[in-house]
Amino acid sequence: MYSITKEIPFCYGHRLLGHTGKCRHLHGHNAVAVVRLEAEGLDGLGMVCDFADIGGFLKTWINIELDHTLLLQAEDPVLPLLQQAGERVYVMADNPSAENIARLIFEQVECGGYPVVEVIIQETDTASASYRRSTP
């Protein structure tokens, strides 16, 4: 099995509804999305995927949707006010935890046709969360 990883740094803000600690308040992160692709074999160039291809795809999507954007759960009471003020907001069905952001990015990469097996969100220098599909 062959694998590659590509890292895409981005900045985002969020808060976690129902959290009893500091994460209940609006705050931001300088995060890194680490995407791992795997394949049994290599393409004609000897690659799982060209780093430029997955990097370009993912960086474009992250820049449009997530970078310098406030990620909020759909039920967040500040959401209508921020939308009305014209702020950049990405609305998530679930709380915008690092775990759920990792799943969101995983699903985007998968929809792009890439053989993604795991996405890690490095939220801080000392904390990360990941998402990967469980194998049957």
Describe this structure in words.
By secondary structure, the protein is α/β, with parallel strands linked by helices. The chain has one domain (2-131): 6-pyruvoyl tetrahydropterin synthase/QueD (Tetrahydropterin Synthase, Chain A). It is 26% helix and 34% strand. The protein has three helices and six strands; from the N terminus they run E-E-H-E-H-E-H-E-E. It has helices at residues 51-65, 79-84, 98-111, and strands at 2-14, 27-39, 69-73, 89-92, 116-122, 128-131. Strands 4-3-1-2-5-6 form a six-stranded mixed beta sheet. A hairpin with a 5-residue loop joins strand 5 (116-122) and strand 6.
Keywords:
34% strand; 6-stranded mixed sheet; 136 residues; 3 helices
Give a short synopsis of this structure:
The protein is of the alpha/beta class and 136 residues long.
Layout of helices and strands:
Elements: E1 2-14, E2 27-39, H1 51-65, E3 69-73, H2 79-84, E4 89-92, H3 98-111, E5 116-122, E6 128-131
Parallel strand pairs: 1-3, 3-4
Antiparallel strand pairs: 1-2, 2-5, 5-6
Instruction: Please work out how many helical segments DSSP would assign.
Output: 3
Biggest sheet, open or closed, and with what strands and sense? 6 strands, mixed
CATH architecture: 2-Layer Sandwich
Structural class: alpha/beta
**Head-to-tail CA distance between termini:** 18 Å
Beta-strand residue percentage: 25-35%
Q: What is the 3D shape?
A: elongated
Number of strands: 6
Instruction: Give the SSE order as H and E letters.
Output: EEHEHEHEE
- Which consecutive residue ranges, at least 5 long each, have pLDDT under 50? none
Give the class-level CATH name. Answer: Alpha Beta
Largest sheet, spatial ordering of strands: 4-3-1-2-5-6
Number of domains: 1
CATH homologous group name: 6-pyruvoyl tetrahydropterin synthase/QueD
Rg value: 16 Å
In helices, the fraction of residues equals 25-40%
Q: Please name the CATH topology.
A: Tetrahydropterin Synthase, Chain A
